[in-house]
Write a structure and sequence with these properties.
Layout: H1 2-13, H2 21-34, H3 39-42, H4 53-58, H5 61-80, H6 84-90, H7 95-106, H8 108-122, H9 132-148, H10 155-162
Length: 163
């Protein structure tokens, strides 16, 4: 339990403000991953069947129950790491809805940074007479930067770009 507390403490010192959305989101994912609850921000809550006895009988009620419990904990973690105003705006949402809404509001900075990094990566050309090693390291750095910004490029494409 001590490990969980230490990881949650990173959210105490990095509360969400407008300019730090990307850093806050990365920290939230770290905390939720450590608590095995990261899936709730990526997948909506399963919907129980409303018609048909067979579908009702076959529905995985335990998975729904666990997802609801994990969502509730994730919402608490998200809300606790926000300013009071953001808490009021999001207190009645589930975890995926909170993340989607915050991305719509504050991820413009991330989009711009992804665009600029992609533009630099796809425009990389080895200048005549330049050493290959530093050029390849620069490209790998740009690919890794894109991954940290939420754009995970296909491994084959990464290799093709460097070559």
């Amino acid at each position: 339990m001590a490990g969980t507390f230490n990881l949650r403490s990173i959210l105490d010192t990095n509360k969400l403000t407008v300019p730090n959305f990307l850093d806050w989101y990365r920290n939230v994912k770290i905390v939720l991953r450590s608590e095995k609850k990261a899936y709730v921000i990526d997948y909506p809550i399963p919907v129980a069947p409303t018609q048909g006895q067979e579908e009702y009988d076959q529905f995985d009620w335990e998975t729904l129950k666990q997802h609801l419990a994990d969502n509730e904990q994730a919402v608490c973690i998200l809300l606790a790491s926000m300013s009071a105003e953001l808490q009021r705006q999001h207190e009645h949402m589930d975890a995926p809805s909170i993340i989607f809404h915050l991305q719509e509001l504050y991820d413009k900075q991330g989009r711009t940074e992804r665009f600029e990094t992609s533009k630099e990566l796809f425009g990389c050309k080895l200048a005549e007479g330049m050493a290959i090693g530093p050029h390849v390291l620069k490209m790998i750095g740009l690919i890794e930067k894109l991954a940290s910004l939420g754009f995970n490029m296909d491994h084959e494409l990464s290799i093709d770009l460097v070559l």
